[in-house]
Amino acid sequence: MPTFQYEAIDAATGKEIRDAVEAPTEAEAQATIRAMGYMVTKLKAQKPKAAASSGNKQKAGRTFAMGKVKGKELTLFTRQLSILQDAGLPILRSLKVLAQMQKPGRLRNSLLDTCDEIEGGSTLSEAMSKSPKAFDRLYCNMIRAGEAGGALEVILRRLSEFMERSEALKRKVKGAMVYPIVVVSVAVGILSFIMMTIVPQFKKIFDDFGSTLPPMTETLISISNFVVNYWYLIPAIPFGFNMIIKGIKMIPYGRFGWDLFTLKAPIFGQLVEKNIMSRSCRTLGTLLSSGVPILEALNITKETSGNMMFEKLFQKVSDSIRDGNAIAKPLKEFSIPPFNVVAWLFWTIFCPGIGALLYLTKYKLPVVDDLVVNMVDVGEESGELDTMLYKVADTYDEEVAVLTESLTSLMEPLLIIFLGGAVGFIVIALFLPLIKLITDLS
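-> structure tokens emitted (442 positions)
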């Protein structure tokens, strides 16, 4: 028997109803809905699910794609969808227009799947939730809140603004890291070339004359011999270290320790902590302002935080709210990290000599500042929690921008000093025995 998807208004309460009913014909479906006390506003036959087979998907223009949708692509799509909705275009028509505009790949496939699901009777949030590699829980819950409140175009505008701010901050941080990474990579390449080709030639000259070499030259030749014999360790050491960290992060306790280390690490720890705090506050504020329930909003914020310390923090805040407490008190109470052996080991490795002592003096520092706790407290009392969270996020965004510029400015002289010191050491170590040889010959 055919299934009809309908939208109607309850004559008794005035509420909008969305449901499905089975009936032989469209006329009988309308009669059944009226008998329930509803006024039909939209009625459409639901297409069978079999239409979504792999063969039909390939005919519909889908291509093979791997991985998730890039944040930049999804942000642009959200802004375009927001504009089309503001213009009054039907959602299905908007999605089909944007799907045709996309390059072949994951996002286009997901949009085509979403169109098929909507034509089959699903809502937009339900259809998008079936493509998790394109639309995550945050995205789908925002859309669901917009549908429930009848303000989808407003929610899409907020979502696009949120994603644009997040992408802008991410680009700023990544851009600041490009310069030191490129300089260090080029420096390592040049120094390796000198050690593997030029220094051995000087070593042959020194051996032919059989003179006693200064300690600096002996050290340089020893380094050169090590690089020549074990050159493969230059790329292998960072690769192996990265694999070890990934292996440690596969264990929950190990991942917790690494995340704690990144939050309190010298120089970059503040940048990581403020970046996560900014993203979490903006995510939570956006969800709350869109009408998502507080517990669901906290769970989504926990999943998008990207740090296990904040995941545990938001989980404890959520449990506390279930017990009838406010947000500010557990946010302050549970923001102090516990002692972690893995974090202590990373401090010992990265800061030889004083790392272990530094960790013992810093690990109890809370990851949530008093500013955030006080702003949340004021927001709860005034009923403007989402507005206060936006203000906290804006404050942290500015601090991240200032800190990023400061670190970039600090990196430049440090890298110049390092390169100058390395080149100076090589030049002096090579010229000292040459000067001695010239003196002996004269």
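Strands lie at 3-10, 16-22, 38-45.
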